[in-house]
Amino acid sequence: MAGLAAAHGRTPPQIVLRWHVQQGLVPIPKSSDPQRLRSNLHVSGFALSDAEMADLITLDRGEQAAVDSDEFGP
Fold first, then answer.
1. What is d(CA 12, CA 48) in angstroms, rounded to the nearest whole number?
2. Which pLDDT does position 31 carry in this prediction?
3. What's residue 74's pLDDT?
4. What is the DSSP letter of 74?
């Protein structure tokens, strides 16, 4: 992921957000950090190739790997 982000001059979170947008999904990023909020908005102006999109799909570890925020944390 870091290599892909560096190749596009973006951050890994921006790559993930762009991946969602290119699939026609509406990501809802959450942050209280003003700089991160601004960064999250800058996902236009570049596109991931079909090969990059396919590579990112292989990162999916399935539902069992997900953390339920209702059950984890303070």
1. 13
2. 87
3. 59
4. -
Q: What percentage of the chain carries pLDDT values higher than 90? A: 53
DSSP state, residue 7: H
Answer whether 12's CB lies under 8 Å from 5's CB.
Answer: yes
Alpha carbons 40 and 44: distance in angstroms, whole number = 10
Other CB atoms within 10 A of residue 47 CB: 12
Q: Is the pLDDT of residue 44 over 80?
A: yes
pTM: 0.76
CA distance linking residue 49 with residue 62, whole number of Å: 23
Q: Which two tokens stand for residue 40?
A: 């999250």
